[in-house]
Amino acid sequence: MSQTFQIPIPPAGQSPLVFPNRCVCCGAPKQAESTLLINRLVTRGEQQVPVSLTYQVPHCERCARSTKAVFLAGCIPFVLGVLLVGGLTFFAVTYGAIIWRLDEYGQPNNTNSLVLGAAAGLVAGLVAGFLFEAAARVLLLPLFGKALFRAPLLAAQFFTDADYVAGLTARPDRAALLLQLTFANDEIGREFRTLNNY
Ligand SMILES: [Zn+2]
Q: Fewer CB within 10 Å: C terminus or N terminus of the chain?
């Protein structure tokens, strides 16, 4: 059973969040740490402020390795999809637009072809990145097993605004004052709440 709750994010300078001294995923003794990195542009009052939160999350050797592997297994195909398909689409559409003399419309020195190519490349690249990552996940599933299955897709993390390490998902609210944490292991979740007096 997983456990989800929201805690106030300790302001800079105050004692940070404390994690139990064992793996957040499987509960084995702590052997390593994985970095949970949350970067956001948040709205506070009238201003947009960049917020960067870093937490060292205790893991056992195995879960730390699987966190890295799962990240790479998602990241590499995603980036490849974006670069390859996005790049090719950009060149194809820009070239096509030049052949169709799109740049002769509107103001002189217009670069309609480049704008159109960039837009098409961006959309095609993101879609391809998502598909490549999903395909890699299916191919790699026998190798990684459940760890990969449980991790949200990178593209999905992008849209749900959440960050993930094995056993723990974190999601700040809009102003980054509260943090929603989901512990895959509810026993660790309870220990965490006790340690942080929450
Ligand atoms: Zn573990």
A: N
